[in-house]
């Protein structure tokens, strides 16, 4: 609750005002049956029209005041709840931005999306109810009970018998229903995961004509969500008929015993009418209160999920040395010393005892079979993951002694699977440097061999890209992403098979332009192309997370069977 209060205190004035805005309509509603009873006993029964008109006017005025204040309360409570939901969603999103790759892996993308949307919406609804019904129900209950006892203490005993029964029903329903509320949110996560995966890979689904399979997978998850929601709903809806039964039995008892007292002359007709109205208010208040409690119970499951994210400390943060931000990357030399790495709770290392060094300005190619941990190894350099054993040095200093901002600013990584953002081409390239001039953008695009195809579009650099860059080819995506990286002018550039979708000639031109534009930049290229390896200063070949061989292309031609195998497999007979 402390984290929520940090947001809610922004709306402190509204929260202070809300109880008064609720109290006035409650007073207005609870005084109406009292006035109605007066009109019946002293006006209708005596045929006194002036009395009826006078008290009827009072009732109208009080109703209008209550209505006006209630409208004011609706505005204030909506402002608080919507503002709180927006601020909490922003806080949660900002928290996610601090997460490292392991943290994202822990929660999963689909779960984080659910927490940002569905879970926060539920919490927002609780805030809305808290500023309206949660205050209104107990206040009306207290006021109505007061008038019930004041009107007729003996008939009030019927109410005293009904309330414990209602409380028991509420307790039983909540105890059985709460576990289902948690399961509902988990099933929403699972459904979102299927939908997200399908939409991202829709082209693959269409290409392999697997629509029926995907529909069946979606239906399974959708049916699971439906079933758990039905179970939770059945428990909830059971409460209201039971409460309605108690309510009707109470009214019948009051009419029976109250009618007898009217016939005996112990109470007047107006008193009985007002008493019935107060009983209705009491029982309706209890029903509203039970609804609030159930909403709180459902939201508490969502709250736990949101707080789980907010309470998670990023697994990768600046060390005490790195937080000083005094260490800067000037040259781009890299050294791996006895580095091993293991993912999460995996039983085996993905990388074992890696040792090598790269000089400033060198171009190093990394090769190896699929699953040999090439990408894993390069992700350790900018601390996207932390090593399990050993250390990585950049410019002779442990990467942990640099701030994360410094590492991510001076070490640029272009992935094989490139995702662009919705917006223009120039906006995407400027992700590398938002302050870059148009001329600098064009220079980077030319170096990445992207300028010509960009200029072929009718709107050139202002061409709008759909989500993920759906309206450009894979090779064009890769070249835009390379231009984005070049615009930053990093000290270390890592290309993770990021030219796999372009032809060999274009790749060679990109490589030549890299050497000219980033003359002193250290370049690491993950590749399967022998032409790229053969033109590099050094080649590192990985096998099962270990270095199989390492050296210049000529050295490996002489002493590396794996390198010769790669070379021979790509020669044209």
* Proportion of beta-strand residues: 5-15%
Name the structural class: alpha/beta
Could you estimate the helical fraction of the residues in percent?
55-70%
Poorly predicted runs of 5 or more residues: none
Largest sheet: 6 strands, mixed
Number of strands: 12
Task: Tell me the span between the first and last alpha carbons.
Answer: 71 Å
Mean pLDDT over the residues? 80
The Rg value, from CA coordinates, equals: 35 Å
Shape: elongated
How many helices in DSSP terms?
A: 21
Which strand order spans the largest sheet, edge to edge or round the barrel?
A: 6-9-10-3-11-12
What does this structure look like?
The chain has 573 residues and is an alpha/beta fold. The chain has 21 helices and twelve strands. It has helices spanning 2-8, 12-44, 49-97, 101-107, 109-130, 133-151, 156-200, 202-207, 211-263, 269-310, 320-323, 374-379, 404-410, 425-429, 438-447, 451-455, 474-488, 504-517, 530-534, 553-559, 561-569; strands at residues 334-341, 351-358, 363-368, 389-394, 397-398, 411-414, 423-424, 464-465, 492-496, 522-526, 538-543, 546-551. A hairpin with a 2-residue loop joins strand 4 and strand 5. The termini are far apart.
What's the structural blueprint in terms of helices and strands?
Blueprint: H1 2-8, H2 12-44, H3 49-97, H4 101-107, H5 109-130, H6 133-151, H7 156-200, H8 202-207, H9 211-263, H10 269-310, H11 320-323, E1 334-341, E2 351-358, E3 363-368, H12 374-379, E4 389-394, E5 397-398, H13 404-410, E6 411-414, E7 423-424, H14 425-429, H15 438-447, H16 451-455, E8 464-465, H17 474-488, E9 492-496, H18 504-517, E10 522-526, H19 530-534, E11 538-543, E12 546-551, H20 553-559, H21 561-569
Parallel strand pairs: 3-10, 3-11, 6-9, 9-10
Antiparallel strand pairs: 1-2, 1-4, 4-5, 7-8, 11-12
Helix pairs in contact: 2-3, 2-6, 2-10, 3-5, 5-7, 5-10, 6-10, 7-9, 7-10, 9-10, 15-17, 20-21
